[in-house]
From TrEMBL:
This is Competence protein ComK. InterPro entries: ComK (IPR010461). It comes from the Bacteria.
Length: 176
């Protein structure tokens, strides 16, 4: 079911599976694919990802730099929109490319080769989409995102294991 809300923004949630560019006479917009709904937003996919990052207090550029610092990934870096909610997306091309889609790592079940060197992505709910990107490229992005998630999660686990009950506050007497 597709609803064309034509709203300038949308909210990325744990149910968002993909953000796919849609070029028409009005310019570049995005098809948002949720678990049980599809709708069109009057913004390019990367602007939607940027807004979602900013909603959680950081820019898309900041998320890309974080991925580079943690995993060493410099091109087509996966991003953690909201790591505490498990919202990780990766681009299918350079984010500046008008053909770039963003896929939710958590929702991908399988990647298969389709005709014309395209990739068919099967989501965990059984829904399938075909993108004009090779299977190898998508599979590489899935693997890189898994590596990044693991490294970031390891850091959170390390911090939680070594958490102290005292919060450093210079205004309090006897602060560390």
């Amino acid at each position: 079911m597709i609803k064309d809300f034509n709203t300038p923004s949308c909210e990325i949630t744990p149910m968002t599976m993909a953000i796919i560019p849609k070029l028409d006479r009005n310019g570049l917009s995005a098809l948002i694919v949720e678990e049980d709904l599809e709708y069109v937003v009057d913004s390019p996919p990367s602007k939607i990802i940027e807004a979602a990052c900013k909603f959680f207090g950081v820019s898309l550029q900041g998320r890309k730099e974080g991925a580079r610092n943690i995993s060493g990934i410099t091109h087509k870096a996966p991003i953690s929109v909201a790591p505490s909610s498990g919202i990780y997306f990766f681009p299918t091309a350079a984010p500046t490319n008008h053909k770039c889609s963003w896929l939710s790592h958590s929702h991908i079940d399988r990647v298969d080769k389709a005709e014309n060197n395209c990739a068919e992505i099967t989501f965990t709910n059984g829904r399938k989409i075909t993108l004009d990107v090779s299977k190898g490229s998508i599979q590489n992005q899935v693997n890189r995102t898994a590596q990044y998630r693991y490294l970031l999660d390891s850091r959170f686990k390390y911090l939680n294991r070594n958490r102290t009950e005292v919060v450093a506050d210079p205004s309090l007497p006897n602060s560390p």
